């Protein structure tokens, strides 16, 4: 059959007993799947016997059973026993198993879950069964592959998870295909010491074509061939599908043409029946009520109507039950959230807002401390107090011992000790910069805290953490008390404003103003308990009333209205008061603004017709109106003043509260800073504890490993000693055998040396018998020894005896030769055993050396770890408070490595800076003074040169005068007599000489001053050079160029840091928005019931 027919889709049954194959003719053959039976054919089926012309199975060929389950299933698989169904629920995270009833049923059968297992997968998924029927495999959109006992994530949920899965027949290999990520995952079980681990090795192949095998070329060739065959089969299948689709279309057309007339008749009959029933119902509406029928009597199929009614009732009951369970689950979740986030809180979280400014202050939500925490705190406090008392007693003992040795100075030392004790009592609380926080500003007691420089042991760190948690609790409680006081103050302020607003509303009503009264109220964040209570006005839907409640309301409403009307009708006093006096017994002062004086009746007539009496009445009326208007104005002004006063008082009180809340906000920021500081110290201590625990565990592991290696070293030493002893004994036996062999050699030479006539034969024999040099080592097996003995037997044959040799000599020769061969075989065996024992001993020695090297390595690691542990215990991480604005470097450099830094007192730096500033000021003063001196010298030199030039001009003029031809010209030029001019010139010369002498003296004084300044300058230069040497030794070169470069570098760093800070601020704002969104998303939604 396999040769003559084309087979399609060979399929095995689940147990592998039968093989189902299809043929071109449309037949299905059932074949025995065992190769031993040569694939025997049980039978075949004909397609037209069990399918119609559209290719569907006939109803009389199969038996259909319909089942209904509790949860909708996205995938289901049938068990091997044909009695169980496994389903993957699509709406709930469960995998259910259902037992199939043994008895057949008609209609719908409800299956209840036999087993229900929760899965950690989410999203729609599928369920599969392994080929051996022992494992269930589930895949989902989350990307996780789950088995009965294992779970593996092979794909990402962002790529819509897993699309298809295939497992090998033995269940050891799994292929998983992603949906949108283009990856194929290959999973294989790991074997660890004979057991299967639940971890999977995953190798991912991308969609671009990474190969699974090793030989890429062969696989590509085979893949191409398979692709060509697959394409040809696909074309054939498509042709068959097209042919089948054409046949099915023809069948549909035949059915439509065959049953079209019948369908039209049925529709026509239904319409006529509907018109008839509608007419009967309309006629029923027109008859008398006695003869009128109910609408249910017009139903043609009462049983069907009753069935539909029952189904609707069942559906309503089911939906009602689901809603009740859903509401119950919501209520349970609400109670859990309320218990965890509200009832368990000793201090509920709430906020407080200002009246006028956008300030919001929040308190610290706090839970009650457990009994265990309180016990630990009491234990630590008692331990600290005991340690303090012990320290005090030790000091007293030391003081008593010192007082016995120094009796003479006892009284003086007592006074000093009292002062020291007072100082110690004052210094028990550490300063803030060593304490590392500002918790003392909130009244926290830090006297029991251990100094950060003394926290070395694990117990001290744990006690310090407990005390720090207690300080955080006290700081929060201190701020919460201040917050509660402010909250009560706001309640008082709101009540006060409410009281004043009552009067303000009355005044506004009296003045008929259109102003709105400002009424402050608490918001939801200030009263969070509102979220737990649902008000009636928050419900937008109409309240559901039961039928009995509706009937009761309808019955009681008319009676209540009648009673109200009767009460109003019987109250004659109230009715008379309303009719006669407007509802009031006396006129109040507030009613002045609404009072109206009625006009006299005669004012309706013309003024000319008034009488005298009417004119007097009119004047009285005008006087009353004027007085009333004056009273109104006075009262209006008083109301306006009172209104303004009330508004100002409200404004002032609320502003004062806002100022107080601003201070409380600053206090809140400081409290949060203190809490963060203490939490930072706790985190540092916890990190040090974890590191210490890690180092201790590492040290313990190394100690155990060292003990194990030492035991192994002792075992190897014993093995080496035993091997050496065995080697010595074996070597002694080997030496004895070698000595015996040598004795045999010598005896053989002595016994057969007299035979000279047979040297040629003897040489031939020696060539045949292995009496020469033997190999140094070698091991002969028993087979080789047997073969050698057979060869010796052949050599000992009498036929091999040389001619002319005595048979007795030949026998003696053969016996000696055989003994020699046996002895050599024993020597070779001993040599081989000796070599093996030597190799074994050398290997044991190498193992011993390796173990010794490992021990030394562990010793070094242990020493290094101990050094690191000691260094860690000594090198503590402390938290120091630094006040901003003190000694800061202008041209700073970002130093990130502080390995060689030391802590020194700031007074040393300040003193050194003061000395540097003083020396710098002195240097600047001397430089300014030198500059002024140089300026004076330059000025004097300039004046001296000026005078010399003027003197030269005067000499030139005198020479010109002396060389003039006549006096008349001289007089004409100078305009005076020559004698007078000469006297004047001589006086000028004398004055110039006096001035030159004076300038000479002044120059001498300046030279002396310059000399003194040069001496001072030399001293200052020496001081500056010393200071420069000091600065050079300190590693700072204060040059203008370097300062400029550093400033430029600092500017660049500042710009870069500013840009980075802006980016980080934007990122932080985005993250804060995301955190707020997630917080609001995870905020407990308290659904109203």
TrEMBL record:
The organism's taxonomic lineage, starting at the top: Eukaryota, Metazoa, Chordata, Craniata, Vertebrata
Cellular component annotations (GO), alphabetically ordered: axoneme
Domain of life: Eukaryota
Region (Disordered) location: 405-426
Coiled-coil parts of chain: 295-329, 367-394, 487-514, 611-663, 706-740
Species, as recorded: Myodes glareolus
Record protein name field: Cilia- and flagella-associated protein 43
Location within or outside the cell: Cell projection, Cilium; Cytoplasm, Cytoskeleton
GO biological process: sperm axoneme assembly
PANTHER family to which the protein is assigned, alphabetical: CILIA- AND FLAGELLA-ASSOCIATED PROTEIN 43, CILIA- AND FLAGELLA-ASSOCIATED PROTEIN 43-RELATED
Keyword set includes Membrane: no
UniProt KW keywords: Cell projection, Coiled coil, Cytoplasm, Cytoskeleton, Repeat, WD repeat
Biased composition (Acidic residues): 413-422
């Amino acid at each position: 059959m396999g040769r003559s027919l084309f087979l399609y889709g060979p399929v095995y049954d689940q147990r592998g007993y039968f093989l189902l194959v299809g043929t071109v003719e449309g037949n299905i053959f059932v074949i025995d799947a065992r190769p031993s039976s040569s694939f025997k054919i049980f039978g075949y089926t004909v397609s037209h016997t069990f399918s119609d012309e559209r290719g569907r199975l006939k109803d009389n060929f199969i038996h259909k059973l319909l089942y209904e389950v509790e949860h909708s299933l996205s995938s289901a698989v049938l068990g091997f026993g044909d009695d169980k169904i496994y389903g993957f629920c699509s709406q709930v995270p469960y995998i259910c198993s259902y037992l199939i009833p043994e008895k057949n049923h008609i209609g719908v059968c409800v299956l209840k879950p036999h087993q229900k297992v929760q899965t950690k997968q989410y999203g729609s998924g599928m369920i599969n069964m392994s080929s051996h029927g022992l494992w269930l495999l589930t895949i989902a959109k989350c990307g996780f592959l789950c088995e009965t006992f294992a779970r593996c994530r092979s794909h990402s949920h962002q790529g819509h998870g897993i699309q298809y899965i295939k497992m090998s027949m033995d269940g050891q290999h799994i292929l998983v295909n992603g949906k949108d990520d283009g990856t194929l995952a290959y999973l294989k079980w790991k074997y660890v010491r004979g057991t299967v681990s639940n971890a999977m090795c995953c190798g991912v192949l991308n969609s671009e074509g990474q190969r699974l095998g090793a030989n890429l070329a062969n696989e590509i060739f085979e893949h191409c061939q398979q692709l060509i065959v697959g394409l040809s089969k696909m074309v054939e299948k498509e042709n068959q599908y097209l042919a089948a689709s054409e046949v099915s279309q023809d069948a549909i057309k035949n059915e439509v043409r065959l049953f079209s007339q019948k369908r039209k008749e049925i529709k026509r009959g239904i319409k006529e029946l509907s018109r008839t029933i509608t007419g009967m119902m309309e006629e029923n509406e027109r008859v008398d009520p006695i003869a009128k029928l109910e609408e249910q009597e017009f139903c043609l199929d009462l049983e069907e109507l009753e069935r539909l009614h029952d189904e609707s009732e069942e559906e309503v009951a089911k939906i009602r039950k689901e809603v009740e369970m859903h509401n119950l689950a919501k209520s349970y979740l609400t109670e859990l959230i309320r218990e965890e986030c509200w009832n368990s809180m000793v201090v509920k979280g709430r906020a407080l807002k200002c009246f006028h400014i956008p300030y919001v202050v929040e308190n610290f939500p706090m839970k009650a401390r457990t009994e265990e925490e309180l016990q630990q705190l009491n234990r630590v406090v008692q331990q600290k107090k005991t340690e303090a008392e012990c320290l005090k007693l030790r000091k007293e003992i030391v003081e008593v011992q010192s007082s016995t040795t120094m009796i003479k100075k006892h009284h003086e030392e007592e006074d000093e000790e009292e002062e020291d004790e007072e100082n110690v009592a004052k210094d028990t609380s550490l300063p803030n910069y060593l304490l590392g926080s500002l918790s003392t500003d909130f009244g926290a007691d830090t006297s029991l805290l251990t100094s950060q420089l003394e926290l070395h042991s694990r117990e001290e760190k744990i006690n310090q953490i407990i005390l720090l948690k207690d300080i955080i609790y006290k700081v929060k409680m201190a701020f919460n008390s201040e917050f509660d006081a402010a909250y009560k103050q706001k309640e008082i302020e709101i009540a006060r404003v409410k009281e004043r607003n009552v009067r303000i509303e009355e005044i506004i009503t009296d003045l008929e103003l259109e102003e709105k009264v400002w009424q402050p109220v608490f918001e939801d964040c200030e009263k969070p308990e509102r979220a737990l209570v649902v008000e009636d006005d928050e419900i937008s839907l109409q309240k559901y009333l039961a039928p009995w409640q509706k009937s009761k309301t309808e019955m009681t409403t008319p009676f209540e209205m009648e009673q109200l009307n009767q009460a109003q009708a019987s109250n004659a006093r109230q009715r008379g008061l309303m009719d006669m006096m407007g509802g009031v017994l006396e006129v109040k002062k507030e009613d002045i603004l609404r009072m109206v004086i009625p006009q006299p009746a005669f004012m309706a007539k013309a003024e000319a017709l008034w009488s005298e009496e009417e004119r007097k009445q009119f004047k009285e009326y005008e006087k009353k109106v004027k007085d009333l208007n004056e009273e109104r104005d006075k009262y209006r002004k008083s109301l306006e003043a009172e209104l303004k006063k009330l508004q100002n008082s409200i404004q002032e009180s609320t502003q004062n509260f806002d100022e107080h809340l601003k201070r409380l906000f600053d206090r809140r920021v400081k409290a949060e800073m203190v809490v963060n500081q203490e939490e930072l110290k706790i985190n540092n201590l916890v990190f040090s504890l974890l590191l210490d625990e890690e180092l201790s565990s590492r040290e313990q592991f190394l100690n155990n490993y060292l003990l194990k290696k030492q035991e192994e070293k002792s075992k190897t030493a014993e093995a080496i000693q035993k091997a050496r002893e065995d080697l010595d004994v074996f070597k002694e036996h080997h030496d004895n055998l070698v000595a015996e062999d040598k004795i045999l050699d010598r005896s053989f030479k002595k016994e057969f040396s007299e035979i000279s006539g047979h040297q040629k034969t003897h040489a031939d024999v020696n060539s045949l018998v292995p009496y020469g040099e033997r190999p140094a080592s070698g091991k002969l097996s028993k087979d080789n020894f047997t073969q050698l003995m057979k060869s010796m037997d052949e050599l000992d044959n009498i036929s091999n005896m040389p001619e002319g040799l005595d048979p007795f000599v030949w026998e003696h020769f053969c016996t000696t030769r055989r003994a020699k061969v046996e002895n050599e075989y024993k020597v070779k065996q001993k040599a081989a055993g000796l070599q093996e024992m030597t190799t074994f001993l050398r290997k044991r020695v190498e193992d011993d050396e390796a173990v010794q090297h490992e021990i030394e390595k562990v010793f070094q690691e242990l020493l290094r770890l101990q050094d690191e542990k000691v260094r860690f215990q000594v090198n503590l991480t402390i938290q120091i408070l630094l006040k901003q604005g003190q000694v800061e470097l202008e041209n700073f450099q970002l130093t990130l490595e502080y390995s060689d830094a030391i802590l020194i007192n700031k007074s040393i730096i300040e003193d050194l800076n003061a000395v540097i500033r003083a020396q710098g000021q002195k240097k600047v003063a001397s430089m300014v003074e030198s500059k002024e001196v140089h300026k004076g010298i330059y000025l004097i030199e300039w004046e001296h040169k000026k005078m010399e030039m003027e003197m030269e001009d005067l000499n030139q003029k005198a020479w010109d005068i002396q060389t003039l031809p006549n006096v008349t010209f001289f007089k004409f030029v100078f305009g005076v007599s020559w004698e007078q001019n000469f006297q004047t010139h001589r006086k000028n010369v004398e004055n110039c000489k006096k001035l030159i002498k004076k300038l000479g003296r002044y120059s001498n004084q300046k030279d002396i001053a310059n000399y003194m300044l040069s001496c001072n300058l030399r001293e200052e230069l020496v001081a500056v050079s010393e200071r420069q040497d000091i600065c050079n030794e300190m590693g700072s070169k204060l040059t203008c160029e370097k300062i400029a470069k550093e400033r430029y570098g600092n500017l660049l760093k500042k710009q870069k840091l500013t840009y980075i800070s802006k980016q980080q601020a934007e990122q932080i704002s985005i993250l804060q928005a995301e955190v707020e969104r997630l917080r609001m998303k995870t905020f407990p939604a308290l659904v109203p019931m």
